Amino acid sequence: MDSATIIKDPKVEISKELLEEIKSQIHEQGQVVVHCLQDALYPSFIRIWPTTFLFDQHSSHRSELVHAENITYFPNWQIVDEGENYFTLIFSGLPKSCLVFDLIEQCSNEGGAFKALNIVRNDIDVYFVRV
Question: What is the mean pLDDT of residues 34-42?
Fold first, then answer.
C-alpha cells in the first residue's frame, strides 16, 4: 500500500462521551490513538498485524499496538463493505521529545501494509488518517 494521508479536519462523528473517555485514558496512560479511514472500492477483507508500530522519526523509540477496535488481528480476516470503513488503533505512548512519527504495519501481507508517514505530533495524541 502507498503511504496514508493525514486527515487534518475529519468529518467523523464520535460521541463526546467517548472522546472525553479516550482523552482521559491518554493523559493517564500516555497512549496514542489513531483513527483510520479506509476506502474500499468493493467489499473486501482487512486485518491488522500485531507488528504495527509508531516509530519516532528522531530516535529509536517504537510504540507498540496495544488495542484495535473495528478491525481483526492477523491471522483472521474481517469483511468490509464498499465505501468508507473506520477502525481505531491504540498504541503505547511516544516519548515527550517526539515531534514527528510514522505508523507502519510490518508484515508479509501480499496486498501490502498500512502506513501513515510524517505524522506531526499534537498535544492530545489523537490522530485521524486515511489508509
Answer: 92
Q: Which domain covers residue 36, as residue numbers?
A: 5-130
100 and 120 in contact (C-beta within 8 Å)?
yes
Amino acid occupying residue 4: A
70: helix, coil or strand? Answer: coil
What is each CA distance from 104 to 46, 67, 77, in whole angstroms?
Answer: 15, 15, 19
pLDDT of residue 17: 72
Q: How far apart are CA 103 and CA 124, in angstroms?
A: 17
Number of domains making up the chain: 1
Name the residue with cell 516519548. Answer: 95
Predicted confidence (pLDDT) at residue 26 exceeds the cutoff of 80: no
Residues 30, 46, 48, 76, Cα dihedral to 10°: 130
Please give the Cα distance from 87 to 31 (Å, whole number): 16
